[in-house]
């Protein structure tokens, strides 16, 4: 089995003298000038863009190939990030516009109805509300049209330094305030630079070499100065006593591998990339290393004994433990209270939840299975739930961050992470396993996700039975498969099941049947020390079922 790899980044604070700080500032200014010019070159039509050699001749600022690779990767990452965010915004706007159009149609019908009834005051209020909704609709449609046009023209309007700081310039009038703003603007635009490494270079990077120091768990960094600055700062900048709070094992492994490579050419080196960033406290160094295999244990935890199925939701992880035969053993819920939290708080909450999930998987000794889904598909799935609660949750939904942390923790802990197609997992979970095991919709979907990893075929039950409030038994039969493929049949099944589930009469009985079906599960739960159903409810449900021959 292929060993998954993940690029992890660890940071440390640099303790510099004045000359070293000035050298890094000059290095960052020179590097960012090339970055801005290269980005401007990429915004031209393809026929007018210059290659690296032509570009260097034009700007008159020769850089080594490896330094220029850092510029290219930085620009590429910015462009990809902007394009991804733009696609997400288009998806969100599309769903919002469709929902608002439905709301407008309802408001218009209601306004006409109220006007016919002869309620002028209420009709006036409805017309004002209708007018506000129409203004909002036009504003969203204009934003959508602008983003679509920008995408078609392949434009990426990135503001180096930040739009917020750029807008502050409009409110300044005095010369001293303008000079202070210029200083802050310059610092914001020239506060970082990136040096990319390669496995075939000495110490993993040609321009910045990290090697062991005499002090235990410490390193020294030799930074090569560009030719334009060597007359002032010399050939190299040596920074000693670098210590990393996190990632000690991964960095030590990479440095040792690069050290041994100098004497044994058969060993492949480990590339190291260095990003220098300046903030209010000074310079930070971020070292990126590629990790292949667990760093906290020797062997991988695989799916031999079963798996942990996980359904990722905007407010929680629905987790079900399965054995090797696809039978559920227990289920858990890990909450994600992300609403009304800032970015740092959300990152901390997601990190804690992922850590708790991986602790549970390591404790059970089983691999983890998640859905192979991107953010846009996941967001569409929940935006169909036209409810303010889902709107608030989606506003804070960080699906990409969750996936990234799951991948990182799985490699660190040596827990295999598998991905499966999530198509119709919620539908099959609701129909087959929700009422049988007393699960929620999300835990039932997590069970289907775990079973799908082993290739189990999910067939819907031959009949669905519900009991309404009067005790009347209802039986419904799913459509016949005929010669349809799996996903064609599931699509047909979903079209049949959705209106049935929305039927209030059937749904009330379905909930009661759900309570009845939880009897066996709840008795076992009480034996395990977990709260279950009351004996009165068990007796009442059993008596009700025995009175119906159809069951």
UniProtKB/TrEMBL annotation:
Source taxon at top rank: Bacteria
UniProt keyword annotations, A-Z: Coiled coil, DNA-binding
Coiled-coil blocks: 90-150
Family matches, as InterPro entries: Cas12f1-like_TNB (IPR010095)
GO molecular function: DNA binding
Name of the featured protein: IS607 family transposase OrfB
Species in which this protein is naturally found: Oleiphilus messinensis
Lineage of origin: Bacteria, Pseudomonadati, Pseudomonadota, Gammaproteobacteria, Oceanospirillales
């Amino acid at each position: 089995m292929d060993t998954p790899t993940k690029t992890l980044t660890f940071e440390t604070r640099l303790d510099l003298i004045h000359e070293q700080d000035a050298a890094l500032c000059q290095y960052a200014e020179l590097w960012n000038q090339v970055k801005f010019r290269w980005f401007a070159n990429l915004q031209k039509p393809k026929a007018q863009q210059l290659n690296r050699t032509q570009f260097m001749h034009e700007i008159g600022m020769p850089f080594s190939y490896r330094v220029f690779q850092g510029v290219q990767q930085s620009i590429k990452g910015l462009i990809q990030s902007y394009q991804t965010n733009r696609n997400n915004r288009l998806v969100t706007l599309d769903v919002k516009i469709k929902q608002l159009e439905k709301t407008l149609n309802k408001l218009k019908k209601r306004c006409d109805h109220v006007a016919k009834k002869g309620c002028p005051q209420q009709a006036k209020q409805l017309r004002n509300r209708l007018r506000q909704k129409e203004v909002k609709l036009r504003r969203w449609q204009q934003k959508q049209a602008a983003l679509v046009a920008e995408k078609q023209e392949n434009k990426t309007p990135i503001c180096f330094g930040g739009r917020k700081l750029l807008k502050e310039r409009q409110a300044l009038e005095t010369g001293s305030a303008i000079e202070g703003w210029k200083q802050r603007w310059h610092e914001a635009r020239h506060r970082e630079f990136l040096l990319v490494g390669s496995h075939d270079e000495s110490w993993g990077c040609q321009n910045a070499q990290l090697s062991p120091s005499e002090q235990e768990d410490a390193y020294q960094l030799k930074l090569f100065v560009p030719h334009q600055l060597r007359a002032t700062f010399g050939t190299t900048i040596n920074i000693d006593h670098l210590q990393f709070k996190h990632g000690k094992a991964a960095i030590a492994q990479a440095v040792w591998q690069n050290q041994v490579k100098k004497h044994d050419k058969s060993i492949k080196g480990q590339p190291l990339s260095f990003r220098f960033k300046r903030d209010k406290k000074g310079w930070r160094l971020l070292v990126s290393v590629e990790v292949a295999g667990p760093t906290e244990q020797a062997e991988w935890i695989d799916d031999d004994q079963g798996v942990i199925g996980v359904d990722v939701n905007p407010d929680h992880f629905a987790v079900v433990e399965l054995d090797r035969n696809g039978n559920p053993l227990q289920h858990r819920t890990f909450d994600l209270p992300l609403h009304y939290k800032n970015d740092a708080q959300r990152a901390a909450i997601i990190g804690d939840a992922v850590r708790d999930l991986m602790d549970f998987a390591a404790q059970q000794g089983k691999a983890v299975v998640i859905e192979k889904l991107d953010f846009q598909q996941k967001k569409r799935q929940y935006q169909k739930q036209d409810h303010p609660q889902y709107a608030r949750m989606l506003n804070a939904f960080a699906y990409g961050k969750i996936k990234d942390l799951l991948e990182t923790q799985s490699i660190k802990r040596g827990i295999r992470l598998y991905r499966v197609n999530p198509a119709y997992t919620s539908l099959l979970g609701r129909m087959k396993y929700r009422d049988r095991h007393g699960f929620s919709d999300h835990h039932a979907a997590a069970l289907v996700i775990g079973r799908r990893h082993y290739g189990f075929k999910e067939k819907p039950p031959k009949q669905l039975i519900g009991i309404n409030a009067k005790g009347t038994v209802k039986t419904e039969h799913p459509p016949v498969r005929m010669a349809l493929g799996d996903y064609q049949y599931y699509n047909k099944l979903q079209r049949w099941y959705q209106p049935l589930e929305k039927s209030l009469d059937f749904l009330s009985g379905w909930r009661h049947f759900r309570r009845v079906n939880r009897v066996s599960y709840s008795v076992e739960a009480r034996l395990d020390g977990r709260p279950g159903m009351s004996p009165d409810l068990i007796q009442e449900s059993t008596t009700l079922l025995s009175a119906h021959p159809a069951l």
